[in-house]
Fold these 4 entries.
Entry 1:
Amino acid sequence: MEPVQALKQIALYLERAGEPTHKVQAFRRAAAVVAGLPAGELEQRLRAGTLTALPGIGKSTAAVITEAAAGEVPGYLAGLTDVGEQPLAAAGSELLAALRGDCHTHSDWSDGGSPIREMAEAAAALGHEWMVLTDHSPRLTVANGLSADRLRKQLDVVAELNEELAPFRILTGIEVDILADGGLDQEPELLSRLDIVVASVHSALRMPAGEMTERMLTAIENPHTDVLGHCTGRRVAGRGRPESEFDPEVIFAACRNNGVAVEINSRPDRLDPPRRLLRLALELDCVFAIDSDAHAPGQLYWQHYGCARAEECGVTADRVINTRPADEVLAWATA
């Protein structure tokens, strides 16, 4: 294993395990530093023992580089491998194996930590055929949401990458904010050009139930909306955040009637919707998208958490849109 590959693999395992961002970024920065060295400099520094003189290379990352360059499996990587290759959840493995893609992923164009290519290559390594790139919309400034101009530029980048990465496909998309009045936070003409639109509430989460229901209903009935993202907005980790209040029967019936998938958000700090609402959406004949909401390559593995919850609640593969090939997903989205 080459040093850059070893450093990236460690970062991926750390992301998969939900380790702190600063620890993950230390290995990704080191990988970038090594990848950017002029020919022959790495070998010179290995001989001279001056790796740590490079910015972004510390004692731990230098050890990984040295061991990998010597043809060894780095000790740091070996210590993560057994855990890193274990299933993340006891249930859901059959449904996980049926997934062909992921409808909700982020890159460093908004608040993700890795370039689009790196996210796509990690998804392909998982055995996926496609992924939807859904960086945030402009009003979510805390997440560096994409203006219309930046999103147009991203579409050009995705087109180029699809030529290089074929047969793997990056589907164009957005996680668009549902505004207080139910409008979608991006130009309608631009939304019409995207393959998949995930619509999510990120603000005014404590809005009264009646107003929140109308807000979400307006967004669901928008013809550009394909997936309703993390519907309750809850957080189950750290300090947590309670669920938004709305009429779930009205919302899930609207999803069914408008051909909008209910997202099963797999992030371990969200796990949204809760099981009682997931079962209700199933009873109301909704379809689902089991998504990672990944902001880094290792987080793509988190779909296993969503698959486990889906299986526990009786969701079968035929009700999950991302068990379908890309062309079928596109046909569903435009039906």
Note: The mean pLDDT is 96.
Entry 2:
Amino acid sequence: MLILPSVRFSTALREDARKKIESIGHADIVIGIPSYYSQTTISQVIESVAKGLDRYYSDRKAIIFVSDGGSTDDTREEAKATDISNYNIEKIVTIYRGIPGKGSALRAVFEAAEFLKAEAVATFDSDLRSITPEWVKNILDPVFQGYDYVTPYYKRYKFDGTITNNIAYPLIRTLYGMRIRQPIGGDFGMSRKLVKDYLDADVWETDVAKFGIDIWMTTTAIVKGYKICQARLGAKVHGEKDPAKDLSGMFREVVGTTYNLMEEYEIFWKNVKSSNDVPIFGDFAGVEPEPFEIDITESIDYFKTGYKNFEGVWKKILDREDMKVIKNLFETENVESFIMPGDTWVRTVYRYAQTFLSTERQRFKLLNTMIPLYNAKVASTVNELADKTDEEAEEYYDKQAELFEKMKDYLIKIWK
């Protein structure tokens, strides 16, 4: 179970934000922008959102709500200075209250939307460099047409979104039966009914309030039967991260939340036998994805250091045949020969899920021992897709997700 901290927050809204919301009274649309150290991109995001609202929803009252995590750069100053006075759109820039993390930022957005009785809510990441006004239309139109949850469908560079591609997407598809390509994409549309459901959940003092919020929102929407679709948004160009350096915290929260939800919704996912396509709407809007480098050597080094530290732990968790594969990878000196078989990765993800369930304490420390294996998977993927196009890479990720589905019986067998 998730561990609750001793301090509880009854609201994520500070007094200044609450008074501003009360003075506004009502809005049809609320656009939330959770921010943290985004001084170089926040203005572009606000301007693009304002243009989109003005271009496509000028007949509706809208507010832009920047929910900041206490950035000590100029993020809030830039957000406040961004001039959208030409549009009939209110803007609120505030620091949220609560556990530091994106979840608390979104809680403040949801509270504002609930007070304002907004019919539609959307969220956009603050580090976007490729957002266009059309993103606003593509995300919000389905909500006004009766959908409750709109997930993004991007064009992404083949190595972007390593946690999504290798864990979040195949697990959501396998466990809950919906082929939602970007379950933790960050840019979502929601109905008023769903937002209220989120607010009423007792999760805001848990790890969901950190990086686990996106996977929790997606899973909750599926399990509770909300009407879901995907929106084409073009390329997601943002502050890409090196998995060997930057993603350990995010990995723990996303994977830990996913595993916790597997425990909570065990009856649901055990009854899911196959997956179905999810409708995709809108035209691709924006630029093509930008290529970037992943330091495969650093990922391999991270894995090999992990092997030295956690070999004993891995022997207790992994299948014997997979441990042989891991040992061979550790002994591999040729970087280009570093390849992890797909079934080894699937069993590793499933084995850690089962071990996570049976570990009553120190669950997130357990996930620390999985991160080197994730880095090995990333390095392997870079090798396998080195000469592939983005389209060919997408086929690879779909086949990998199909393998997760085919091996679901293995997960059920070892689960308890």
Note: The first helix runs from residue 15 to 24.
Entry 3:
Amino acid sequence: MKQNVVIVGLGLIGGSFAKAFRKYTDCTVIGMDCCRETAEAALAAGAIEKIGTPDDLPNADFVFLCLYPKICEQWLREHLKYLNRNCIVTDTCGIKSWLCPRMKKLSEEGGFTFIGSHPMAGREKSGFGQSDADLFLGASYILVPCGAPRAAVEALTELVLPLGFSGITETTPEEHDHIIAFTSQVPHVLACSYVMSPQCPKHKGFSAGSYRDVSRVANINEVMWTELFLENRDALVEELDTLTLHITEIRDAIAANDAEQLRALLRRGRLVKEGLGE
């Protein structure tokens, strides 16, 4: 049976979901966005079949909230009365420990099912204009079930896998946030810190792949990432402390002209990377 999918927030991720559902499935795709121009652009591009209103929500089988964490909670609170009991609501946020308990509580009030999710895909720039139907090809899709029935988890899995995801990873809010602090948030902190060097404006003619690799994600949406960093501050600070410790160890070996210690530290890093088979 044809599924009705409502996507709320048509930026990079929401717009890419809309385009992917249209390209790879026969789902009916309805889009909602607080910016009328964005919604109209999505409609004109064929990413959605209709600009949605609250009246479309009672018929939704799935609702994807592609919004900042606090706005996800606010939107769901304001639209509880429109969602049917068979609806599955999911988010796409990069933090879960703060968000999931709040969304779970609202779902219990409304009688529908909430499942946290996080597509591990993105780009440096945001907005519908950057969205791509193939953004998720080969990406991992993280599910945070939050106590949802197994049938609902399987239904969401079956819905998203045709979009090109390489597989599903299930986890808890706590594990998600600790690992994401390392894999996603620390690199953004590192990149922003790196390009603040007074040497950065002089890099042209002196840089190649290393500069590009480290600096790439410094092109950041500071509003979104400030919210994500602060709502995951405990896990992120722990990872930053670990990074600072290791940078200090290498820095001190260089300052002391201690070649033996420096080789040992660099060897540790190399062996860790090689051990991962990457």
Note: DSSP finds ten helices and eight strands in the chain.
Entry 4:
Amino acid sequence: MKKSVLLVQAFIITVVISWGCQKPLSTSVQSSSKNSSTGAPEFHQRGGLPNFFQKINEGQDAKVAYFGGSITEAGDGWRSLTFNWLRINYPHTPFTEINAAIGGTGSNLGVFRLERDVLAQKPDLVFVEFAVNDFGRTTQQIQQSMEGIVRKIWKANPTTDICFVYTVAENVLPDLLAGKFQASAQAMEAIAEHYQIPSIHMGVEVARLYKEGKLVFTGKPDENPGKIVFTTDKTHPLSRSGHPIYASVVRGHFEEMQRVSGAKPHALPTPLVADNWEGAQLISLSELPSSAHWQKLPAENELARSVSKFMPALYKASSPDAVLRIKFKGTTLGFYDVVGPGVGILDVTLDGDKKEVQRFDQYSHYYRKFSFYLEGLPDTTHEVTIHVSGKAFDKASILQKRNIKIDDPSRYAETSWYLSNLLLVGTLEFIQWN
């Protein structure tokens, strides 16, 4: 009985994805791009995914990694739809899914966590989706981290294939309607072209349907009968209507790329960005001696348990006496931490210059994985000191920006810091806490 139910579910998924694909597929293997009625190219095949499809053709085990933000992390979204499509359409290939997506994070964190969260599981294909969360970063910053991701993957295994996928939020929809990619995707395309990585812009189809009056980008389904409502919050696709569009686009171009297969290791050309982050390091704090002011949260702690998939160790500092001192040579130092109701302000001193870093924000009514950086530094030796300030501030007014009210003041009483790892582009010379 269970087997019959699974087969029915698989059939439904196939029908949903097929129904969402509105356009005829190209029949040209050499086709490098595909334009929609908006004028923006939806697909660039470039080098394709030859090693991945070679494995499929031979019926070998194939591991598919999904590396991105909340749009990729979403359950019942484009990730699960495309993965199930692969399983259904290539039944002789045993597939393994690697869900390495973290909501609200971009490629600047991705490049540091890549080895632990993705490469350790030896993927055969890596989807990289950071265009929405990289919004607001400069072209230089985006290319530093995205090129670092590419070079790390191919240094670990030159036969791992990569596919860049771009998503869209309402704030960049005008770009697609004008026939161009948003700035973050444009920056990523330069990396894709340099390394001949295929890229799929899933938002182009959304823009086409919007332009033709068939889709409402942001709205309520019950208020828009007869139309596709893509999202209710300007960014995250609805599982019933938005994500199937994304999945149908990926499916269609997979069918194009499957025509090219073969063992073709990827060579690493000269970097496009000389100071890319291929040397980015995720540094553990586990070897530091115990401190009275830094507590490693036990595995059974509710917060520690909730983030343990990506943060095996989480440290809490609450007292103003909690200090972290770091000396390093390099250009970037970051902090992989958790923000939420019980966090506060840090006093950060970099090479003698002091500033406050606010870890509580308008989304901090729940705990989430996050990061911040001291970057763009000269490639010299730097000294950093961080104090947990303990300073009181008005959390209610910050949350009010999103019309969120504090329902339980005790959840917000602390002004702590939850730190998991250091993020470094450079060489660590000294670290101490007390």
Note: The chain has a mean pLDDT of 92.
